[in-house]
Design brief:
280 residues; Rossmann fold; eight-stranded mixed beta sheet; AB_hydrolase_fold; AB_hydrolase_1; Alpha/beta hydrolase; hydrolase activity; hydrolase
């Protein structure tokens, strides 16, 4: 796996790259870096040249400027891909990364050949007013959006990382090095990104996702990640999203309520979905 930096107008962005073949770009979830895709990159590198660029404000990339919009973030990401010589790519964006991907794909026609738009049900609600209402009653999101008290923000970060570290499922599988590695990576990513994460969430909160979804002109697979809690509190959104995009397909991955959004321990399953779409 090659690691390096690419220069953009917002600063240097960190990337990892592996494999050979058609170019496939994976955009990480908000607040996460390419670490979250280590197993997925390994699964896909036999079939694609896989590139993961850390979004500004995450991993080892340059900070995210205050007041940045999703259109700007998508533009900086497109600059990074151009700097790496990638002119036409298949694209996978998960959760916060799906918004970066959609903003980039609409504003840089021809760059994205095919797009897998993935996220939990609450993350892919197409109607902004409905999505805003969900965000307003979600304490974890509100605590990030309203992070104006440095002490409260600092304490919240400690509680979040402690919850990862002492998670019951992890403690039951401490003998598994891969499980420990996933938690360590998540904590590192949180520490690297927590100061800029409020800026990203404010950009996501103000983003008119529905307008960009309607403007997507490439083949799209909507991958909805569901849990029983999401079904009760939000309802499934994948069909509504797919209906906005001409010819879009829909697949669903069901998970228990305790499941993390990042799919890090389902790399083989996700890789099979991506191969089927990008090579089909």
């Amino acid at each position: 796996m090659q690691r390096g930096y690419v220069t953009t107008s917002v600063g240097q962005l960190h990337y990892v790259q592996a494999g050979a073949g058609p170019d496939l770009v994976l955009i990480p979830h908000a607040g996460r870096s390419g670490r979250m895709y280590a197993a997925l990159v390994a699964e896909l590198a036999a079939d694609f040249r896989v590139t993961v660029v850390d979004v500004p404000g995450t991993g080892r990339s340059a900070p995210l400027p205050e007041g940045a919009t999703m259109a700007q973030i998508g533009g900086w990401y497109a600059e990074a891909l151009a700097g790496l010589g990638l002119a036409s790519v298949d694209l996978f964006g998960l959760h916060g990364g799906n918004k970066v991907g959609a903003a980039m794909a609409v504003r840089h026609p021809g760059l994205v050949r095919r797009f897998v738009y993935a996220g939990q049900s609450h993350s892919i609600i197409p109607d902004k007013a409905t999505r805003d209402e969900i965000f307003r009653r979600t304490p974890s999101i509100q605590s990030v959006l309203g992070a104006v008290d440095p002490l409260a923000h600092w304490a919240g970060q400690f509680r979040e990382n402690a919850a990862f570290w002492w998670d019951d499922a992890l403690l039951a599988s401490l003998a598994d090095p891969a499980a420990r590695r996933r938690v360590v990576d998540r904590v590192i990513d949180n520490l690297e990104a927590f100061q800029d994460r409020p800026t990203f969430y404010r950009a996501a909160f103000s983003y008119d996702m529905e307008a960009d979804l309607r403007a997507l002109a490439m083949p799209v697979l909507v991958l909805e990640l569901t849990t029983p809690k999401e079904d009760r509190e939000v309802g499934r959104q994948g069909a509504a999203v797919a209906a906005l995009i001409p010819g879009a397909r829909l697949e669903v991955l069901d998970s228990p309520d305790t499941y993390a959004v990042t799919l890090e321990d389902r790399a083989a399953e996700v890789a099979a979905i991506l191969r089927g779409f990008f090579r089909g």
